[in-house]
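Protocol step 4 of 6: structure prediction from sequence.
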Amino acid sequence: MEPQRLLALYAHPDDEILGPGGAIAYYARQGARVDLVVATRGEAGEIADPALATPENLGQVREQEMRCSAETLGISQVVFLGYRDSGMEGTEDNQNPRAYMNSDPAEVVPRLVEIVRRLQPQVILTFEPYGGYGHPDHKTIHKHAHLAVDAAADATYRPDLGPIWDTPRLFYPLLRRPTWAAMKERMAGHNLDLSFFDGLEERRGQGWPDDQFQVTLDVGAVTQQKLAAFRCHATQFGADNVFRRLPEAEMAEVLRYEYFALARPAPPPGLHLTDLFADWAAAA
C-alpha cells in the first residue's frame, strides 16, 4: 500500500492542537508522514506567565513550543512561512505590513504549491472559512490553502515548482458544540469557573455548522499525546487555561473524538467515515 501522507496548513503555533491534534498523533503513530506549515510564529499571542516570555521574544519562544508539540505528536517537519501574527480582528497588529492577513497571495501561494507538489499528501487539513472564531490569520490560511491546492493540480501553473499534484482530500477539523458542552458539564461537576463559556456562541460567529461533517475519528489511544502537546504551548495554555482545568483523565474523554468536514471534493450525500484515508466505496 502507498504510504499515508498528511499535510496540515495552519496560521499559528498551537493551531495544530485544537482541532486535529489527535488525528496528527494517531496517523503518525501508524507510520504516516505528517508535515505542518505554520504561517506565523504567533507573535501577537497571549503570555500566560510573564516568566515564560516577553512581547519582544514571544515569537522565538512560540517557535520552540511548536517544535516541542511537533516532536510530541510525531510531526515529521514544521515549515514556518515567516509572516507576522496579525492579532485579533480590529487590533493594532492588523496594521503591520508583515501581518499575515496583509500578505500577497501571489507571494504565499507559490510557496504552498511547491510544498504540496513535493510532499504529495493524500490529505490536507486547514481551517474552515471562518477560522473557528474569526481570527484574520485563520481565514487567510483557509483562502491560501484552497488556492494552493487548486494551483498545485493545474498543469499550466508554475511547472518550475514540480510535477502537478491533485490532492485527493481536503478536510476542515472542527470543534463542535457537543465537545464544548461536554467540557462545560464536567467542569460544572467540579464547581469550576464557567465564565469562559459566556459568549462562546458569539465568539464562534458564523462558524461551520455542527451537523456538516463526514469523519468521526476516535483518537482515544493518543489523547495523552494530545494533552502533552497542549502543555508544550505553555505561553498560550497556562495552568488556568480552560483546556487544563479538568483532571487529565476527564479531559482525555472530552477530547476522545475529533470531527472533520470534507471540503474537497464535495462529499456525496450521507457519507460518514471513521478514517480520513478510508475508501469511500468500501464504506458505502
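Step 5 (inspection) to follow. The mean pLDDT is 95.
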